[in-house]
Amino acid sequence: MNSFSDFNISKNILDAIHDMGFEEPSPIQKSSIPLILEGKDLIGQAQTGTGKTAAFGIPIVENVEAKNRIQAIVLTPTRELAIQVSGEIRRIARHKKIRTLPIYGGQSISHQIRALKQGVQVVIGTPGRMLDHLKRKTLKLDDVKMLVLDEADEMLDMGFIDDIEQIIRHTNRDRQTLLFSATMPPPIRRLASKYMNKPEEVAINRTRVAAPSVDQVYYKVFERTKLDSLCRILDSEDIQLGIVFCRTKRGVDELTDALQERGYLADGLHGDLTQSQRDKVMKAFRDASIELLVATDVAARGIDVSNVSHVINYDIPQDPESYVHRIGRTGRAGRKGIAMTLVTPRELKQLRTIEKVSRTKLEARNLPSFEEVAERQQAAWKQQLIQQLERDEDHREIFYEIVRELSEEYPTDRVAAAALQLAFGQTHHVEEEVYDFGETGASKGMVRFFMNVGKNVNIEPRKLVQDISELAGIPARSIGRIDVFDRFTFLEVPRDAAPFVYEALRQSKINGARVNLEPAKPRNKR
Ligand code: ADP
Questions:
Q1: Which atom of ligand 1 lies at the shortest distance from residue 54's CA?
Q2: pTM to 2 decimal places
Q3: With a 6 A CB cut-off, is 92 part of the ligand 1 pocket?
Q4: pLDDT computed for residue 48 by the predictor
Q5: Is residue 499 within 6 Å of ligand 1 at its C-beta?
Q6: H or E element: which one contains 102?
Q7: Is residue 432 in some structural domain?
Q8: Looking at the structure, do residues 55 and 104 belong to the same domain, yes or no?
Q9: Which of 127, 182, 363, 449 would give a disulfide with 163, using CB separation of 3.0 to 4.6 Å?
């Protein structure tokens, strides 16, 4: 099963998958899609980011008929996830006439009722709102033949288990049930044995693979500003030849365009290129007329170039094995190589899994500051200016005019510096609005969190600082005040690190206790 076309799925879905830019099934997809298509109940143990949405989404779209009945439901812990899953299923169903609808709390219920009345086949929702609709009889689940519990352990932590059981009881007994969870705590096991029919179990990330000995580092980045972060890294490194990995063909095309636009010598490689296009790109890479090769895993598989100095995981790999394959492209023939991985807050746990399974440790590195990049770029900027100065001057009268006018009010060197700033000094912002923790009563520049455990599980400030520092990849000394109480703890961390601390600690375990984290409320301030 190395290609989507090996699965027993319709052409319209294969076309949609192609449009989405997926080249080959991810490990969880390889192992679970055939079983789901056979109609088996299934327990899938996988982290976020491994492609499990498509693992159940593809069979759902394959099985659902155009008739006006809800035939599949997916329960998710949060509204964000419901929207995300619905979007992914919608893309898979792009060439098939079926409708998906996310329903979640916080959105007007009458709007949802209207949307439900128009006829949908797949509903994705949070348990609370789903139950609400069932009680109002605005949701009919008699025809549901597939039920998916996504991120079951998170739903457990959020106290949704009773709601889930009630919802399950509204569905048919002969339905197919799929359960996905990163961990398998006893209540989830119990749920599975109560409501599932001889489930098959698939788990990925089990086989250990040894990572080659190249330097491995990671950078904490945000989804929205990832491109800027990458450029900063590229600008601060001596790259001879670099391979930049993206998850999809679309991703390769988009990143290649963006890098070329910004003046990097880059080209892209993926499975949709013809052999001659491919050869051309590879030749350019081999003789170093391009410095950066942007590629998918599949496209990079055959590459044998010995002097690759950098492997950059722009998108974190979906499994440890592919991580090991990717970084094995550098450090060849006795040369030094470095592997860099960009990690968003949500992907931190995926990074830890990769470390565990491939038995390596990645060193956390801070993104180079603008000043650091600028220092290295000075020479290049000067060179560009000189080239411009020596070019034919005829076209620049308008610019002269501006300079003359402004020079009457400002010193000319300030005018020139401001112009340079505009030309070269794009400011990169690193915060992301998704993580707005609001007012938490923290000191300036910090975010304060409330953690649901304290002395009752022997939380010890010094150990906690060490754990946070390791899990979130931030220096221990940057962590602020920690107050441990009997049953809870307050802790302060720098604002730019807060999303990473939040994602790393949420749903984790400390001294065997399940930990949850939320932004503190200002009135809790002492
Ligand atoms: P999960 O549900 O496990 O958190 P997702 O299903 O959201 O992970 O997948 C993470 C990302 O990977 C999504 O952007 C998705 O579109 C993409 N993806 C899923 N399967 C593949 C694949 N086979 N090849 C490339 N990208 C994929």
A1: 6
A2: 0.70
A3: no
A4: 74
A5: no
A6: strand 100-103
A7: no
A8: yes
A9: 127
pLDDT digit string (tens) for 81-118?
Answer: 899 999 999 999 999 989 999 999 888 899 999 999 98
**Spatial strand order in the sheet of 242-245:** 266-269, 292-295, 242-245, 310-313, 338-343, 215-220, 363-365
**Structure tokens belonging to residue 120:** 């949908």
The distance in angstroms from the start CA to the end CA of the chain is: 59
> How remote is the CA of residue 162 from the centroid of ligand 1, in Å?
29
**CA of 338 relative to ligand 1 center, distance in Å:** 26
Strand 122-125 to 446-451 pairing: unpaired
Would you say the CB of residue 384 lies under 6 angstroms from ligand 1? no
| Best of 1, 29, 53 for a ligand 1 pocket test (most atoms within 8 Å of beta carbon) | 53
Same-domain check for residues 222 and 350: yes
What pLDDT was estimated at residue 210?
64
Q: Which domain holds residue 24?
A: 4-203
Judgement on whether residues 127 and 80 belong to the same structural domain of the protein: yes
Same domain, 402 and 477: no
- The finding on whether 49 has its CB within 6 A of some atom of ligand 1 is yes
Atom of ligand 1 nearest to the CA of 84: 7
> What's the number of CA atoms in the CB half-sphere (13 Å) around residue 500?
31
Cα distance between residue 101 and residue 300, in whole Å: 37
pLDDT-based confidence at residue 1 (cuts at 50, 70, 90): low
**Do residues 199 and 282 share a domain?**
no
Residue 29 Cα to ligand 1 midpoint, Å, equals 10
* pLDDT tens digits, one per residue of 278-317: 889 999 998 889 999 999 998 888 777 888 899 999 999 9
- Considering the domain architecture, whether residues 350 and 256 belong to the same structural domain is answered as yes
Asked if residue 136 and residue 84 are part of one domain, the reply reads yes
